[in-house]
Amino acid sequence: MTSTFTSHAGGGPGAGAAPPAVSATEVSKVYGSGDAAVHALRGVTVGFASGAFTAIMGPSGSGKSTLMHCLAGLDTVGGGRVTLGDVEITGMSDRRLTLLRRDRVGFVFQAFNLLPTLTAEQNILLPLQLAGRSPDRAWFDRVVEVVGLRDRLGHRPSELSGGQQQRVACARALVARPEVIFADEPTGNLDSASGAEVLGFLRTSVREMGQTIVMVTHDPAAASYADRVVFLRDGTIVTELYRPTPDTVLDRLKSLGG
Ligand SMILES: Nc1ncnc2c1ncn2[C@@H]1O[C@H](COP(=O)(O)OP(=O)(O)OP(=O)(O)O)[C@@H](O)[C@H]1O
Ligand SMILES: [Mg+2]
Fold first, then answer.
1. Is the predicted pLDDT of residue 7 greater than 70, yes or no?
2. Residue 212, in any domain of the structure
3. How many Å apart are CA 214 and CA 86, to the nearest integer?
4. Exposure b/e, 64-99, CB count within 10 A at least 16 = b
5. Ligand 1 touching residue 61 (CB < 6 A)
6. Which of 130, 187, 232, 237 is the most exposed place for a label (fewest CB within 10 A)?
7. Helical H runs in 13-105?
8. Is the pLDDT of residue 204 over 60?
9. Overall domain count for the chain
10. Tens of pLDDT along 237-250?
11. Atom of ligand 1 nearest to the CA of 232
């Protein structure tokens, strides 16, 4: 599998004709009603390229997690459409969405969500086991190599550092070869060295395995590992940046007043 990242290098937005791995079209989402209504998303249209690492940034409350949950089929939209690959997921039944998430999407959250009684290897293989799929051993070995956890596979989460635990969570998401991995503040609970470890791994999985990743983060340094950053404010996408650096991300955030 090759990454489409290189197709961005010269072109920026619009380069490469491959359809996005996941996209939102005019997506809106309102929580509550009447005076208490919160317009979390106000007509968001955005696509996330296959084989690319995209960060979503914006001030607290701007709708980042809501957008990610709608893209991942964890939450329903109020209006508009979400498409995963060639499938429109808007309006799908809960049952179909559950299967779709299980088979085609991976998640990494701020809390590592590892099962404490299982070893690292058992945690990594759990989603496949639950889905009744047998692991592809060669792929498992490759993932373990990329995350650098070969000598930690027999350890339980309590015997691992925070960074190692989050890398186990990343490997768990990756081993099922999902079409997209969604990560919400994956380095939010980590010190900067462990965070860099996890982000480096995520970037490697994009470059070397062609993984598609959409990551929400507050941290300009974290966002600079991505190929592209989209910025939300008040429930709409206001700007985007290709080939971000911590400084260009920070400048853009300042101009948003976030
Ligand atoms: N379940 C809910 N019920 C009511 N309002 C909600 C709910 N979830 C989110 N909101 C509101 O929707 C808006 C967007 O929230 P969201 O969690 O998407 O923001 P965010 O950009 O992820 O913020 P943060 O950076 O703080 O995580 C906020 O105003 C929030 O208070
Ligand atoms: Mg959030």
1. no
2. yes
3. 18
4. bbbbbbbbbbbbebeebebbbbeeebbebeeeebee
5. yes
6. 130
7. 64-71, 94-104
8. yes
9. 1
10. 999 999 999 999 99
11. 21
Q: Looking at the domain assignment, is residue 208 inside a domain?
A: yes
**pLDDT mean over 101-128:** 92
Minimum-distance ligand 1 atom for the alpha carbon of 32:
4
**Cα 200 to averaged position of ligand 1 atoms, centre (Å):** 28
- What is this structure's pTM? 0.89
Integer-rounded Cα Rg, in Å, for the chain is 18
Structure tokens at 42: 């106000």
- Is the residue at 11 inside a domain? no
- Given this model, what pLDDT does residue 6 score? 39
Helix, strand, coil percentages (3-state) for the chain, rounded to 5, are 40, 25, 35
CA distances from 13 to 9, 166, 182 (A): 10, 31, 21
Q: Is residue 1 situated within a structural domain? A: no
Helix (H, G, I), strand (E, B), or coil: what is residue 40? strand
Distance of CA 215 to the CA centre of its chain: 4
- Domain residues for 198? 18-256
The three-class DSSP label of residue 96 is helix
Q: Does 60 contact ligand 1 (Cβ within 6 A)?
A: yes
**What CATH number is attached to the domain comprising 37?**
3.40.50.300
